[in-house]
Structures are given as C-alpha cells and as structure tokens.
Amino acid sequence: MKILVPVKRVVDYNVKPRVKADGSGVETQGVKMSMNPFDEIAVEEAVRLKEKGVASEIVVVSIGVTDAQAILRTAMAMGADRAVLVQTDAALEPLGVAKLLQAVVDRENPGLVVMGKQAIDDDMNATGQILAARLNWPQGTFANTVTVADGRIEVKREVDGGLETVRLALPAVVTTDLRLNEPRYATMPNIMKARKKPLETIAADTLGVDFAPRLETIRVVEPPVRKAGVKVGDVAELIEKLRDEAKVI
C-alpha cells in the first residue's frame, strides 16, 4: 500500500510570529521556517506503518513556494521514499489546498492519506475533512492510535469526552493529533541519503484546479496585551472590582 503524506512549511513553532507593519499578514521574510509539527507526526506514523510492513511506499507532498523543498527533504530523511512539490506562489486556503491534493491523489492513487489535523499558522483544521469529502473517502480525524489490518484501518480519535474508536474501509484519510507518536530525529546518514531521493516539482497551474482564494484578509493585528493581575484585600473589594472595572456582574 502506498501512503501519501501532505506536509506544510510554516513559521517554526519556537519563533514568536510578528505582524507585518502594514497589517496584511504575518512576517515570514528572514524568519526560521520548518515543517508543521502535526505533519511531522503524520510522517512518523507513515514510517512506522512501513516498518510494520503495512505500507510499501511513502510519498510526501507539499504545496507552496520553492523553499518548501527543504521540508520535503526533511520528511525523506525521516523515512519517506520520494517527494512531490506542487509549486505556487499564490496565497492558499484549505479548499484550494484540498483541491490540489485531490489532483495529486488521483495521480498517485494511494491507499491511505495521513496528514496533520491542522497547521499552526492558521489553525483552520479543515483541509483533511475537505479532502476526504471531495474524494468521498472515509475519514478518521484527531488520531490518537492507528491500526491497519485486513484491508481496514482502526482509528482511536481524541474527542471532548475521551477517545472514540472508528473502523474505516480503505482508502481513507487520517489526520493526526499530538499524542499519536513522537517524531524521530533525522540522522546525518539519512539526511545525506535524502539528498539523492527523487523530488518531483509540478506547477500548480498545470493540474487544472481552481485554487483561487475565496476569503479576503482585511487586517491582521497583534493580540491585546494582558493587564497585570492585582491582589484584593477581601471579598467585598473583589466584588466591587468585578462590578465597576471588569463589568462582569
């Protein structure tokens, strides 16, 4: 079985995002970029499934600028076999990404798509669900545990009340949550080997997909600075502040 793993290039999670001076978005020039952490978990899970003999090939795909090749090489250093970059400089939204991924799925014909539940740059948590709907495939979102056997996949999902188990027919789409696994570090020998693994580049415009944005960003602003806390002398003073200053009672 072939596994397809979409990965996204985002501002590194250790970097504090800065809003552009004109308020048009988040500054990415001169900022450390890396693979979306949830996508790292997806790559790790795909590699583990291959190590168990469930998968025969792992293909990673990214949609974006040329510099996204770096995270594809990282994924191949972790254990993916080859990579595809759908190259575009256009602004992308979950619907457009899902359409482009659908085109890649039609081209690659995988038995399973494993992807992060969301990207840490926009936190939309929508691409996996849209992709499953467009493919008309079953989906197991927020995966905590994944087991593949007898042509089916069992996914334990993280839900508000605890864990929910779903059993899906293949092919299917699975989105990964934080507690699914801990991604491995790429060793230096594997980093060197990844440089020789095939990386194909496809122009997004050649896939016959309308991925034009449907949303318009009006303005991006920093969150308001939180005021420092204060101590009160007694309950009466607390109630007074809640009534007169916070105006919550």
Please describe the biggest sheet, giving its number of strands, its sense, and whether it closes into a barrel.
9 strands, mixed
Count of individual domains: 1
CATH class: Alpha Beta
Number of strands: 11
CATH topology: Rossmann fold
Subunit structure: Heterodimer of an alpha and a beta subunit.
Protein name: Electron transfer flavoprotein subunit beta
Family: Belongs to the ETF beta-subunit/FixA family.
Pfam families: ETF
Write up what this structure looks like.
The protein is α/β, with parallel strands linked by helices. It has one domain: 3-Layer(aba) Sandwich (Rossmann fold), CATH 3.40.50.620. The protein contains 6 helices and 11 strands. It has helices at residues 37-51, 69-78, 94-108, 127-135, 188-194, 235-244, and strands at 2-6, 9-11, 33-35, 57-64, 82-87, 112-116, 139-149, 152-159, 162-169, 172-176, 199-203. The strands form 2 sheets. The chain has a 9-stranded mixed beta sheet with strand order 9-8-7-10-6-1-4-5-11, with helices on both faces. A two-stranded antiparallel sheet has the order 2-3. Strand 4 (57-64), helix 2 and strand 5 (82-87) form a beta-alpha-beta unit. Helix 3 (94-108) crosses helix 4 (127-135). The model has no long low-confidence stretch (mean pLDDT 93).
Characteristic key phrases:
single chain; 249 residues; alpha/beta; Rossmann fold; 9-stranded mixed sheet; two-stranded antiparallel ribbon; 6 helices; 11 strands; electron transfer activity; ETF_beta_N; ETF_b; Electron transfer flavoprotein subunit beta; ET-Flavoprotein_bsu_CS
